[in-house]
Design a protein that fits this description.
By secondary structure, this protein is mainly alpha-helical. It is 60% helix and 5% strand. It is built from six helices and two strands; from the N terminus they run H-H-H-E-E-H-H-H. This is Transcriptional regulator.
Length: 146
């Protein structure tokens, strides 16, 4: 099963936008994410609709933050990404009439739902500003060692 990296890619792009000296083009972001500019535009469309980013067309245009990172939570980005699956599908449906399969699936599903609920609650508490400050702290430590 292929993993969904939309959330990670969006976070990556947003954090780079904060440190950019101007708008970032879809081509620039695509190079950072090792993907295609069309994928970038599709990824950022949900964030634009939510007002978290803005885009300008033409020469000198590109993507910029629409609000400060402290106003964007991981949950906001997750929702703007279309709420991708957080966990792989753990259940099988080889024999839906099998009582063992039914019991296993019921418990696995309940556990995954509980874990998703806890994860989303945590997402709600973490802002992109928190991540940006962590990056700066680590950068200062790396520079001090260098």
């Amino acid at each position: 099963m292929r993993t969904d990296s939309r959330l990670s890619r969006l976070l990556h792009a947003l954090l780079h936008m904060e440190h950019a000296e101007g708008p970032l083009t879809s081509d620039t972001i695509a190079a950072m994410l090792c993907t295609n500019p069309v994928v970038v535009r599709r990824l950022l469309a949900g964030l634009r609709e939510s007002g978290y980013v803005q885009s300008e067309k033409g020469h000198g245009g590109g993507w910029v933050l629409g609000v400060p990172l402290d106003e964007i939570t991981l949950l906001d980005v997750y929702r703007s990404a279309g709420e991708p699956a957080l966990f792989s599908d753990l259940v099988s449906e080889d024999d839906p009439l099998c009582l063992v399969e039914q019991a296993v699936n019921a418990h696995l599903l309940a556990t995954v739902q509980e874990a998703e609920k806890a994860l989303l609650k945590r997402f709600e508490k973490v802002t992109l500003g928190d991540l940006s400050r962590e990056i700066r702290r680590k950068g200062k430590r790396m520079n001090a060692r260098g």
